[in-house]
């Protein structure tokens, strides 16, 4: 067994199962996707630690537990038929995990260099049911809506209305909301034309930049 494979197995056993990650599809996907392939060489030995890691351009790859927790909270009813939207591709890791148990992942990345690298990473690993778009994630991706679930990997000041409008009935939006140091992860479900938010846990994410997010800092 390679060191990375062993580290990935221990990650699942010690970081995920011990913290109430129970969805077998999520656990299997987290145990199969090589997180070390989505970080730079200098961080590969840290890839299976339970911490975020920098990926450049002021962005990070989320800690494994948070990725697993967010995907579990989608609570997809028929995962193998599900079309899921991800906001904040980064280098493609979370999309790769999702792709293991859903029909297709559409993912939006604001930073062109990260989007291009994510596409290269996903292609190299033969993850073929993922489509990457360069753009402002606050607008979602209306072309392929409505979605069976939406997961957002950056914190917005409030829930972007375009994302709510792209949810299927009974589907969930998982999104961190709030400013740095005071963020909460929300699960918002669509039911009979209304949206019902539930607070899940405090979190710390990079900001969602754009029309429905925060203004980009200058200088």
Written description of the protein model:
- The protein contains six helices and nine strands.
- The protein is α/β, with parallel strands linked by helices and 219 residues long.
- It has one domain (3-203): Vaccinia Virus protein VP39 (Rossmann fold).
- The strands form two sheets. Strands 5-4-3-6-7-8-9 form a seven-stranded mixed β-sheet. A two-stranded antiparallel sheet has the order 1-2.
- Helix 1 (3-16) runs antiparallel to helix 2 (24-32).
- The model has no long low-confidence stretch (mean pLDDT 97).
Fold-level CATH name: Rossmann fold
Q: Biggest sheet, open or closed, and with what strands and sense?
A: 7 strands, mixed
**Stretches where pLDDT falls below 50 for ≥5 residues?**
none
Oligomer: single chain
Spatial strand arrangement across the major sheet: 5-4-3-6-7-8-9
CATH class: Alpha Beta
Helix content: 25-40%
Question: How are the elements arranged and paired?
Answer:
Blueprint lengths: L2 H14 L7 H9 L20 E4 L2 E3 L2 H10 L9 E5 L5 H7 L4 E6 L2 H13 L5 E5 L12 E6 L8 H5 L1 E11 L5 E9 L2 E10 L16
Parallel strand pairs: 3-4, 3-6, 4-5, 6-7
Antiparallel strand pairs: 1-2, 7-8, 8-9
Helix pairs in contact: 1-2
At a glance:
This protein has 219 residues and is of the alpha/beta class. It contains six helices and nine strands; from the N terminus they run H-H-E-E-H-E-H-E-H-E-E-H-E-E-E.
